[in-house]
Please model this.
Amino acid sequence: MNKTKALFLSLTLWIGGIGNAYADFEMNLVRGVTKISQANYDLHMLIIWICTIIAVVVYGVMFYSIVNHRKSKGAVAAQFHESTKVEIIWTTIPIIILIGLAIPATKTMIEMDDTSESDMSIKITGYQWKWRYEYLDEGIDFMSSLDALSNAARQRDSDVDPTTVPNYLLNVDNPMVVPVNKKIRLLFTAADVIHSWWVPALGWKKDAIPGYITEAWTNIEKPGIYRGQCAELCGKDHGFMPIVVIAKTEAQYAEWVAQQKTAAQEKAGEADREWTQDELITRGEEVYNGNCASCHQAGGEGVPGTFPAIKGSAVAMGDLEKHIDVVLNGAGTMMPGFSSMLPADDLAAVITFQRNALGNNVGDSVQPSAIKPLLGDEDEDE
Amino acid sequence: MSAVAAHDDHHDHGPAKGITRWLFTTNHKDIGTMYLVFALIMFFVGGAMAMIIRLELFEPGMQFVDPQFFNSMTTMHALVMVFGAVMPAGVGLANWMIPMMIGAPDMALPRMNNMSFWVLVVAVLLLASTLFMEGGAPAAGWTLYPPLSLQAGNNLAFVVFSVHLLGLSSIMGSINIIVTILNMRAPGMTMMKIPLFCWTWVITAFLLICVLPVFAAAVTMLLTDAHFGTSFFDAAGGGDPVLYQHLFWFFGHPEVYIIALPAFGMVSTIIPVFSRKPLFGYSSMVYASASIAFLSLIVWAHHQFTVGMPLAGELYFMYATMLIAIPTGIKIFNWTATMWRGSLSFETPMLYAVAFVIMFTFGGFTGIMLAAAPTDFQYHDTYFVVAHFHYTLVVGGIFPIMGIIYYWLPKWTGHMYNEKLGKLHFWMTFFSFNLTFFPQHFLGLAGMPRRIPDYAIQFADFNMVSSIGAFILGLSQLLLVYIVVKTIKGGEKASAEVWEGASRWGLEWTLPSPPPYHSFQTAPEIK
Model:
């Protein structure tokens, strides 16, 4: 028995030793930067301390018994086996403790649920496997997906070492930018399957459910960059759709809004001009890698039984109209319609790319101006 | 009828010879053995999947499997462990021991008993066959949430039919257990005198009959949504994806207690024997078990705090969930009081039972944390939850099963197992289990979501520790197989009583070791 004790002692020390050697053994709940995250942290600590006290008492009694009431120490067993009095005591005490926990929990829950009197609203839509942010008051609308560096490093045959990638798997191309000290109402929905939007520093997560809108709110008190991830299993690349929220001061936020609006105007002009086939293919490759390659694979070979190939496929090699229809409106349960996700120039580019690359050589191309009328009033079709 | 009468004339025939003994057997011990062997095989199949998961999570980056296959592994690991390993092990133990504990010759419905086992085998084979399909095994998580589960290819139909058969098997098993315990008790053995293991199994059997049809209905709706154009769970057709979650968890939460309640019975069986002292508060244990079963039926949506329920729903499910702590607490206190001022010895079964009480209490603590709705908005779908349910399902389900196997193994085989190796198996399992799952609490709190095949660098250290623990945990279980096989083959002869004074605690210890093929041919008299 002494050997076992010694073994345990040395193991405990060993584990404790690791704790000192590395800085990254984060152990407790994130404290966060909102009132709600702070309230949740406090509630979390309250429950931990209550449980610790219960544990000391219950484990104390148990270990006293284990150490002292041993047959090997000559303990003779008492034969009592009932006591209504103690049964009542140990039923009542937990009830009182639970009421004590339920009160602060109820308070926080009520506060979390109250989305009224917000200063601004952002609609967040989950897609397989990216997020879309629509600023309802500003008309800003963009997609946000895993940054290219992380995406390269997370591939199975990748020779990029993940540890060299800054914020590996927690970085995006277009972060969500918000002002500090404003009550922001967030509306969640999804285009395909259920996702869940979670930034630990904000203190909660909320499911994004196709066909339904769920609500939450936040009020970030400190400027900074806050990172999170999709928390509801949403298919193959569930682990690769992070969330980045940048909280800025009001002036910086106004500047960002102005920039976004100018960029959107510039982009709108792109759809109206004539593109050369080479331009389309070059842009199309970028769009393909960002939107299509996760299922249809970088080389267009697909995954047999799950994701059809584009290389040599009847759709990409066949009738142009049909090809446009599949890309814009989707097909089956897995292929989403991209008409509301991508602008006309990106759509024209990626279709042209698919017909003239990845081993395909149809030779034709489609102009953004031809796609534009097919998109209709894209913002209304959710 | 004459055939039956003729059969009755020579009661003491032994088992049939060869393979037919196992295929056609109606003997509770043979069926119990088959259930246990099947569960052990599935324990290793599910365990191998866990090894693949932990291997991929050993360090950041994708090294061994594709994300889709990783998702299949998490999905299949859960389904195989729950439906293939833990539940069949529980049913196997019930089959073996309930007739012996209540003084009956066999189960009440022996032919149905045989059928429920073979249906289970078919069901699990159907499920396992999806691993070899084009498009792979189901990968939407064991909860099979739509719309994701509807994106699966052909495997969905196989999973749905597998669930139907699993349900059929469990319901038949449950009916058998209820009928046996209600009707076949020895004269004088009133319901308030049956061993707690029998009580928890009666309650579990009722729970199974309550919830399995709901699960079967839910997956059938998935099937019709996928193949027959209905829209139960599709908002575009007027349905609601969250409806599935309500149906699933109406089954899924009681399922937790379907695993845990028989285990509570096993612990209540072991602790008095090795404390040499009667179980404290027998009747309060019975009432607490029944209360837990009832409460488990009305708390399901605490698995869905983040789906956007109205405030009243959030609060109701929070309060109802917190209530479970009360009967569970009573059980913990009763076990502690049973040990108090006993005369304790720590053979392998007792080690498992005591480890269960300590670690299950810990799982209860994290359970209270998860029950608090606002903090669940942080914990939900993270590794904190993964850690919590392994502390409740592995410790709450598998540890007692391990303990009770060591406890009854000498009775079954007539040989003592090697106590030294048994203890070694316990300490390896105990140590590596905690090494695997304790750090996962920290990972979850620090922000690591569950069901991800790769993770950010700050989660790397604890993941490596967890993986090392998992590999040791997996390897340690080979020792169990070695011990069991060796005990079956030979070893020190076990007496009828096996454990000091055990005949005081149960009828099974009044039979010789190993017991006769038909347990009690004449019902014993209970005073």
Notes: Chain B touches chain A through 100 residues (CB under 8 Å).
